[in-house]
Design a protein that fits this description.
The chain is built from three helices and six strands. It is an alpha+beta fold. Catalyzes the NADPH-dependent reduction of 7-cyano-7-deazaguanine (preQ0) to 7-aminomethyl-7-deazaguanine (preQ1).
Length: 166
């Protein structure tokens, strides 16, 4: 394979390579872009780690900081990484609870990609002496991925003392 061709999803991208990138000031799922998955014939994970995720407490307006982990098994589309970076940046002035942020991210990626499986884990830094680390997942209904999602949920973080997230 010589490389991805324009007709394989590149012609639809507006952010990658654009030197006049606009950084969203407010939550904006419309910034997300997808390209064709050239390997839809197999299962594989795509993983993103965003150690500089920020959002705001909806009541106090104080900043919350997290490492956001996103892992998914694509179907016909994959998310373009610069658009994902700008999308996650758009939470910077967004006021929501930690649990809401991870679920919103997951829902927006499901809507964009119609993927097979996804999990989103936000490991927030402690504030007020407590950390909150919400985790959510989804498997496409009626498929083996739905069973996978249930299994991973039931077995998630069974040994939290071995989770080094700070």
């Amino acid at each position: 394979m010589a490389g991805r061709k324009q007709e394989e999803g590149l012609q639809d991208l507006t952010l990658l390579g654009n030197q006049k990138t606009r950084y969203p000031a407010d939550y904006d799922p419309g910034v997300l872009e997808a390209v064709d998955n050239l390997h839809a014939d197999r299962d594989y994970f795509v993983k993103f780690n965003c150690p500089e995720f920020t959002s705001l407490c909806p009541l106090t307006g104080q900043p919350d900081f997290a490492t956001m982990y996103i892992s998914y098994i694509p179907d016909k589309k994959i998310v373009e990484s610069k658009s994902l970076k700008l999308y996650l940046f758009s939470f910077r002035n967004h006021g929501d609870f930690h649990e809401d942020c991870v679920n919103i991210i997951m829902d927006d990626l499901i809507k964009l990609l119609d993927l097979r499986y996804i999990e989103v884990w936000g490991k927030f830094t402690p504030r007020g002496g407590i950390s909150i680390d919400p985790w959510c997942n989804y498997g496409k209904p009626g498929t083996k991925y739905e069973d996978m999602a249930h299994f991973r949920l039931m077995h998630h973080d069974l040994y939290p003392e071995k989770v080094d997230n700070r």
